[in-house]
Each structure stands twice: as C-alpha cells, then as structure tokens.
Specification:
Layout (H helix, E strand, L loop, with lengths): L2 H12 L3 H21 L7 E6 L15 E6 L6 H4 L5 E5 L5 E4 L5 H12 L16 H20 L1 H8 L2 H7 L4 H29 L9 H25 L4 H15 L11 H9 L1 H13 L8 H27 L4
Parallel strand pairs: 1-2, 1-3
Antiparallel strand pairs: 3-4
Helix pairs in contact: 1-8, 2-5, 2-8, 5-8, 5-9, 5-10, 5-12, 8-9, 9-10, 9-13, 12-13
C-alpha cells in the first residue's frame, strides 16, 4: 500500500463524516459572510467594574457609548481581567482619585479610562486602535481558529485507526508509519485548504467584496494557516488518547483569542505581552495586519520563521510520538 491507495482510503471514509462537511461548506462561508456584514457595524461597550459602596455613584460620570459601568461592592479578582469578564477595574483611592487596573489594554486605552473617571473627559478616542484592523484581517482571523479546530477533526481518521486497532494492520501492508503520517498530513492539508481558499476566492471575485488581499497573497496566507492546522491536528491526535477534539478545540480558541485573531489589542504588561508573542497565531496576525496596511510580505521574515518553526516542531513531535508508540506496540 503506497501513498495513492492510502489517500483514496481516507477520502472514501471521510464521506461519512458529515460534521466535517458542515464546517467546510456551511460554517466557514457563514463566518466570512457574518464578518463582512458586521464589520465596523457592531461596536461593543467595554465593561468597567466600578468598585463602590454606593451603586448610585456610578451615574456621576458623563454618559457615553464606550463604557458600560457595572457597580460592585466587592472588587473582582484579577483573573476576571485576564479572562475578559471585565475590561478594567476602577477603584477609588483614599485621596479621592480613581485607580484603573487593566490587562489586555494598551497604555493609551488605560489612560483614557483613567481620564474619564478622574477628569470626566470624553472617551471618544477609546477603541480606535481596534478599528484599525481591516476586513481581510478580521475574516482571516476568524478562519484561523476554525482551521485549527478543523485540522484536528480531519485527523479523526487516524484516531479511528488507532482505537479500532486497524493502524497496526495497515502497517503490516507495504507501508510504514512515515508514509502513513505523510499521507495523513497531505490529506488534512488538502481538505482544509481547498474549501477555505475557494470560500474566500468566491467572496472576493464573485460577490465583489474587497477583502484587502490579492488572490495570490490569500493563497499563501491560507497555505500557512492550513499547514499550521495540519501540524496542530497531528500533534494533538498523537499525544492525546481521549477527548482529543474537545481539548484541541479549547486550546485553539484560547490561543486564538490571545493571539488577537478575533480582536486586536495591546497588553499593558511586559510578561503577558512576551507570552502572547510566542503564540503562532500572533505572528500570523502581525503579518496580516502589516500587509493589509501596505507593507511588503517579506518584511515579516521573523514572523514567517516563527510560524515555520511551530509547524515543523508540532508535526515532528506528533510524528515521533506515533513512531515511538508503534515501536512499543501501543498501536
């Protein structure tokens, strides 16, 4: 059994996985459509936790369309900021001024919040940094998260072979684990790339939506995120035995949120900022944001190298785990 029979075998079996087709043919196009329709139209107010004994004091500040002030007697825990339950925590100090605590906010945004409470200045400039991201980056940001989760879903054929003990029987044919992993990787990449690229190409060319990127650049960017999704899928499916899809989806969502895929933000904390910069989605979004604003693609060599390292490392670790388990007889 060589590459072509293995690939055809997976193609025949994937026909019965309706949930994968639902994501590829329905969820991804709907995501693109929703992002296009809602882009720059839906503006959410930032939630400010205002610590006070008198809830009525929350009305002492000017009305605005930027902040939703929530009066609380007890100060929220710091994790509420990290998890995004609140965008800021405001507390009155003994000298009468207000202290503002933020995490996922830039220094400028934090200062605007502080001036609103301490000087009652208008917060009209608040949030303008978030609006700098164009439509193309917003669309692809959502797609990154979906592709990562879909990459794991497409490796379910491998986990099936493993759980049903057919993996070992496949390896008894004239095929080794290297060929099996290679075929699974190509299969996952192709099944991710084609519907994703077609959905974006149709949106751009047929419906005339200005996504902000040429078809050539879209093809390259989709190839990068698809390769990352493929490597992530093989990695997660190799190291986990149970709840693979659930665990991988949770990791994909959290890292995509922190990687600014859904909302662009700056962190006013050097440690957290350093940790976020390691996330591969952050490098991908930096490339998108930059090229969308007119910078050359090759100006982001550092981010491209980071992404290449993540793709190689995840794929390599996944492959090594499979080989080790084959040798130890676990499969």
């Amino acid at each position: 059994m060589n590459f072509i029979p293995l690939f055809k075998n997976k193609l025949d079996r994937i026909k019965f996985k309706k949930e994968i087709f639902v994501v590829a043919l329905i969820i991804i196009p709907i995501t693109i459509l929703a992002t296009v329709l809602l882009s720059n139209r839906l503006e959410m107010k930032s939630k400010i936790a205002f610590v006070t004994e008198d809830a009525r004091s929350a009305h002492d500040f000017p009305e605005n369309d930027k902040f939703s002030i929530i009066a609380l007697k007890d100060k929220p825990v710091f994790s509420d900021l990290i998890l995004g339950h609140y965008d800021a925590i405001v507390e009155k100090k003994q000298d009468g001024t207000y202290d503002v605590a933020t995490v996922i906010k830039s220094k400028e945004s934090t200062e605007i919040i502080s001036n609103y409470f301490n000087k009652k200045e208008s917060p009209d400039e608040y949030g303008k940094e978030d609006k700098q991201r164009g439509l193309g980056a917003k669309v692809l940001g959502f797609i990154v998260m979906i592709v990562l989760m879909q990459g794991v879903a497409l490796t379910l054929l491998y986990t099936e072979d493993r759980s049903l003990k057919t993996f070992g029987r496949i390896l008894m044919a004239p095929v080794n684990e290297t060929m099996y992993i290679f075929t699974q990787g190509i299969f996952t990449f192709v099944c991710l790339y084609i519907p994703t690229f077609l959905a974006l190409a149709i949106t751009k060319e047929v419906f005339g939506v200005d996504i902000g990127f040429s078809l050539g650049l879209l093809a390259i960017m989709i190839a990068i995120v698809t390769a990352l999704g493929t490597a992530f899928g093989i990695f997660m499916s190799s190291i986990l035995k149970q709840n693979v899809s659930l665990t991988a989806s949770l990791i994909a969502i959290i890292t995509s949120l922190l990687g600014t895929c859904l909302v662009s933000f700056k962190v006013n904390n050097s440690l957290i900022d350093g940790l976020i910069s390691i996330i591969p989605q952050k490098a991908f979004m930096d490339i998108l944001d930059g090229t969308e604003k007119g910078k050359e693609f090759m100006q982001f060599k550092g981010q491209l190298i980071d992404l290449a390292i993540w793709i190689v490392v995840l794929g390599l670790i996944g492959s090594l785990v499979i080989r080790r388990k084959v040798k130890t007889g676990n499969y």
